[in-house]
Amino acid sequence: MAKMSIQALRDSVERIYTLPALPGILKKLLGLVENPRVSLNEISDFVSSDPALASRVLKMVNSPVYGFPGRISSVNQGVLLLGLNVVKGLLLGVSVFDLMQKSMVGLWEHSVGCAVVARIIAKRMGLREPDEVSVGGLLHDLGKVILILQFPKEYGKAMDLAEVDGLTIVETEKEYFPANHASAGAWVAQKWSFPKNLTNMIEYHHKPHLAKVASYQTAVVHLSDVLIRGRGYGFAGDGNMPPVNPVTWERFQLTKNDVKKILAEAEDAIDRTRDLVL
């Protein structure tokens, strides 16, 4: 595996839709969201046609992950309020729910927790699109799901090495892959026609200072990832809390009291998301 080229890895990652483990509904969804001319009505009709997906989408839209707790009664209403880019990310998030649960126990919880914290920070910082940042938090570790599905043995070794040596998973991935999960997630995001903002949040959530667009939003996702790890909610592949990127820390100028307030607000919101992960 160490000798695999980056291009060979990318080709394999982008063939994710051919995996037998991929649910039929997700394969259909990918065909829909990859169409750059897809309309909100088409997406709404697609979601409404699948009761299980519609139920999951409504549960997410009415959760603290988004800004409409308990107020959205129809899929069409939720789609119109959230907008195309947020809905695409939300749909992919809930559609890979089962894959996350099966591939890495606790990854979905970690992702939902990150989404909640990202929205709280985005609102505190006055960002115009906190729901978009929340989607970035929900999907930031998408690459882990893909690498686990495509290379379960190698990824298992990376997780074992992280546990034995006390390293983060992003550090041990490089022992078995020519690129890490952030790159893998970005490749798929590009293939799935994600907007550049979301793609950058996924690609640079470990190195937000390198984000070419949406650098502020990417920094929010990065900080949220670290904070939710520190809180111990869910599991992201290792038991460590990496340091906050110094450029991000300098940019936000958060005090210890600010962090306490963010986590206190997140506590209640996360408690109210538990039915999303059971």
Structure description:
With 278 residues, the chain is mainly alpha-helical. The chain has a single domain, classed as Hypothetical protein af1432 (Orthogonal Bundle), CATH 1.10.3210.10. The chain has 17 helices and no strands. Helix 3 runs antiparallel to helix 5, helix 9 packs across helix 14 and helix 13 packs antiparallel against helix 14. The longest helix has 18 residues. The two termini are 35 Å apart. The model has no long low-confidence stretch (mean pLDDT 88).
Describe the secondary structure blueprint for this structure:
Elements: H1 6-14, H2 24-33, H3 40-48, H4 51-61, H5 75-82, H6 84-95, H7 97-103, H8 107-124, H9 130-139, H10 142-150, H11 152-165, H12 169-173, H13 181-191, H14 196-203, H15 215-231, H16 246-252, H17 256-271
Helix pairs in contact: 1-13, 2-6, 3-5, 4-6, 6-9, 8-9, 8-15, 8-17, 9-14, 9-15, 10-11, 10-13, 13-14, 14-15
